Fold this protein.
Amino acid sequence: MRVAILGAGSWGTAFAIHLNKLGFSVKVWEYFPENVSIITKTHRNPLLPGIPIPPAIFVSNDISEVVDDCEVIVVAVPSHTVRKVLKGIKGRTNGKIIVNLSKGIEEDTLLRMSQVIHQVLEHPYNMIVTLHGPSHAEEVAREIPTCVVAASTDMETARFVQEQFMTTYFRIYRTIDIIGVEIGGAIKNVIAIAAGICDGLALGDNSKAALITRGLFEITRMGVKLGAWEQTFAGLSGVGDLIVTCNSRYSRNRYIGEEIGKGRKLQDVLSGMTMVAEGVRTCHTVHQMSKKYKVSMPISEQVYKILFEDKSPREALIELMTRDPVEERHSLPEIL
């Protein structure tokens, strides 16, 4: 099988290595020519240190050279660049399955990534699969056992990706709840920033556990409002991805929160990072979504105020802890 991967970041590179091991012909498109040169000459990606890139993986800055003769296209660019990148391949995707790895919600339009793909390319929605779950690139590249979920409105399309991409160390489940999988994969990054703030404030295990649990409820509340299945959020792209992102040393979103909890400002933290932390942009879109759909998301709202309104993390914590007492599953039954 011939696969084109758009994006040579850590996850795009790790996924290219994974597919190469399966015997697929893999081509990768990278935006920056200088990165193409580094990867081609050294067979290494600085964003994925210590991992060799097989010479058989072709890397190019020419997107048509990568996409034109492929059978499957994998989208692995940051979510805020998906629309712009896809405009470069419009008219070249007929009959091809598109696999989305990007996690996020587009600012202002509030579209999920599969919706952006469908809109820009006018591609059949049942030929789009989102592959999400607790899957840090560093661990997948090292063949550490990982489980993810393939989501598509067409179960057979999801099954195709499941059967073609699964290995002994990379297990794939399938579902038709693409809404729930994408909402879980996006909003968990906002909760991960909050979890990092907990770490930065040295609040302890009780606080972190409460944050993750109530954060999952916020994600579920929004997802169900948008038409997702409640049970999806008890799965890999819900609680699974949330756990790993809120706790892992690899999590860029958790790191940002931790540094802010220690007293640093957002722009100062971002200026020292080379990789994208999706949660910062997603926090802004979640703020827009909660207002538009009238969904209560108190943790996400406090993260928004900390990031964009310079609110004190400790002040935000006090406000969260002193809200009016409610039932544990407050408001979810009202929208089911």
The beta strands are 2-6, 25-29, 58-60, 72-75, 97-100, 128-132, 146-151, 170-175.
